[in-house]
Design brief:
Elements (H helix, E strand, L loop, with lengths): L11 H44 L16 E4 L3 E2 L8 H15 L4 E2 L7 E17 L5 E16 L7 E12 L4 H26 L2
Parallel strand pairs: 1-3, 1-4, 2-4
Antiparallel strand pairs: 4-5, 5-6
Helix pairs in contact: 2-3
């Protein structure tokens, strides 16, 4: 439509479209920059947090806390003094505890008597008892129980050591012979015992 003086009126509508598009592009870029900065800020925060925790002796996402001066440990082969002996339990328990300690901390193995931390112990009980009785006074569930005594010693700091008995059990159908379920039950119990001992030594330390 012509304006005053017969000159064509500027087409403001058509000119506003690229301005709007440019504004959208700028907003998008600003948002991307903001997201990138926030991401970098989070990474920086995580890095700083890890540096701080490392200085305090905490350096594992598992929650393991070890004083920075502690570098080595020794985990002895566990003895077996239970009245009922599972011949493979001592080795299985020792290996499982050793593997977890090495996998979830930065400590290295060393010989007995020369390390910062030492673990020794024994299996004190391995027994099957009735866990539940049905209405006809018949046992419906049996319970396999394992008791593990573990001693923890800190080189040069006797008062910081401890000795504790860890007990775990698993129930099974009384109509089944122990041998048919023993392997699975022992695996469950060993994992629980190892987790208990690890938490006591490395997380609640």
């Amino acid at each position: 439509m012509p304006g005053r003086g017969g000159k064509p009126r500027p087409n403001w509508v058509s000119r506003s479209e690229p301005c709007i598009e440019k504004s959208k592009n700028m907003d998008w870029k600003r948002n991307k920059v903001r997201e990138l900065c926030l991401g970098l800020g989070s990474l920086t925060g995580i890095f700083l947090m890890l540096r701080i925790l490392s200085g305090c002796g905490v350096y594992s996402f598992s929650g393991a806390s070890v004083p920075p001066e502690v570098k080595t440990l020794h985990i002895a082969q566990m003895g077996n003094n239970a009245s009922l002996v599972n011949p493979s339990l001592s080795q299985q328990l020792s290996d499982a505890f050793r593997d977890k300690c090495l996998a979830e901390s930065n400590l290295k193995l060393g010989p007995l008597g020369s390390t910062d931390w030492e673990f020794t112990g024994e299996i004190q009980d391995y027994s099957v008892t009735a866990a539940a009785v049905s209405g006809q006074e018949k046992t419906s569930l049996n319970r396999l129980t394992v008791v593990w005594r573990l001693k923890f010693q800190v080189k040069g700091q006797e008062k910081q050591g401890w000795e504790q008995r860890f007990t775990r059990y698993a129930d099974f159908d009384a109509g089944l012979p122990l041998q048919s379920v023993e392997g699975e039950l022992v695996n469950q119990i060993v994992k629980q015992l190892v987790d208990d001992a690890f938490n006591k030594a490395f997380i609640q330390w």
